[in-house]
Amino acid sequence: MKAYGKTTWLIGDAFWDSHSNGIYPSHESICVLNTSDKDAHISMTLFFEDREKKTGFDSFCLAGRTHHIRMDRIVSTAGETVPLDVPYAILVESDTPIVVQYSRCDTAQEALTFMTTMAYPVEE
Fold first, then answer.
1. Are 7 and 99 in contact (CB under 8 A)?
2. What is the pLDDT of residues 2-11, one digit of tens each?
3. Which domains are delineated in the chain?
4. CA-CA-CA-CA torsion for 74, 4, 91, 24, nearest 10 degrees?
5. pLDDT in tens, 68-117
6. 3-state secondary structure (DSSP) of residue 8
7. Backbone region of residue 22 per phi and psi (left: phi > 0; alpha: psi in -120 to 50; beta: other values)
């Protein structure tokens, strides 16, 4: 299979809201598409306005598959989680070309909201 995509992607606006409607948790996902014949090993770095960046958030996407990385469930190699109620940005790096989309489900209000956008592909 042909490998479509890029190996480096940027998501400029991420936010995990601590408020939920009690039925569905607010959450974010990094949606990955891997069209190649090689498994993609993915690393994410989180950047903040008021604190040092966080590294060691790793995941994978099998060859010829999709993978939805739930940011409310991921734990870094240092045992850290994504902080709640803090704006941040994400650098997504892969060892094989992938396509990256970012989605946010906000259930803080009665009317659920869902937002999605393509990540910014970095030219290589």
1. no
2. 899 999 999 9
3. 6-121 (2.60.290.11)
4. -40
5. 999 999 999 999 999 999 999 999 999 999 999 999 888 777 777 888 88
6. strand
7. left
- E strands, 15-112, are 27-34, 40-48, 54-61, 65-70, 88-106
Q: For residue 92, what is the DSSP state? A: E
Spatial distance between the Cα atoms of 15 and 17, rounded to a whole number of angstroms: 6
> Could you tell me the two tokens for 8?
């480096």
Rg value, the chain, Cα:
15
CA-based nearest residue to 101, from 68, 55, 61: 68
